């Protein structure tokens, strides 16, 4: 897909995956709306990239109105042809029943699913609706939506019931959404990352994270880099025959009990 003259929307655009993807898309010729809650980081990224190439829109991924405003801003930049859903959020993490015999709160479970699955659908549906109004390219394509799952959606670990359920939902949504949107010329793909070094680890030194998780990756024996996710996202954008599937990017990492 040719990106010159087109716009893109990246939710979670100042996070690890998001920012790397924004940079890749801008370099490829797209004008990008950075949709995130962090105004300070968003404004700083726009300043680095240039206001003619990027725009920050404060966005709550769980809000229809907020996402609608971000989609509208992207359309003002040019025909929206790419949406990358890379937002994160809190995932408390605990066993379904703890050692005191108390159940994991339903409200916490519901909130995690809201952030990682329902919000993904919110962005997917609104972005696809905008793309469906585009003039088709010579290839017949009007756009592509890239969602983000996780290997936890396939092989969740202890304490990941809510997160695994949400990401498993994204995985299950992929093929159905691609088939639903095929008549509109909109592709849908999902990336399922393994263990990557991103801002989600906060101030924990990289060496500490590498020591704990890097050794469990078969090859290469290290954490993933955010730009490796972004590189794959751009390849999906450019290859029209990639549709309706989930690509694991995890160095052959598998979690076994």
UniProtKB/TrEMBL annotation:
Which Pfam family, an example, fits this chain? Answer: adh_short
Q: Where is the Ketoreductase domain?
A: 6-194
Q: Which SUPFAM superfamilies match?
A: NAD(P)-binding Rossmann-fold domains
Q: Which InterPro entries match?
A: KR_dom (IPR057326), NAD(P)-bd_dom_sf (IPR036291), Sc_DH/Rdtase_CS (IPR020904), SDR_fam (IPR002347)
Write out the entry's keywords from A to Z.
Oxidoreductase
In Gene Ontology terms, what is one molecular function of this protein?
oxidoreductase activity
Q: What protein family does this chain belong to? A: Belongs to the short-chain dehydrogenases/reductases (SDR) family.
Q: Which PANTHER family match?
A: 17-BETA-HYDROXYSTEROID DEHYDROGENASE 14-RELATED, SHORT-CHAIN DEHYDROGENASE/REDUCTASE
Q: Under which name does UniProt file this protein?
A: SDR family NAD(P)-dependent oxidoreductase
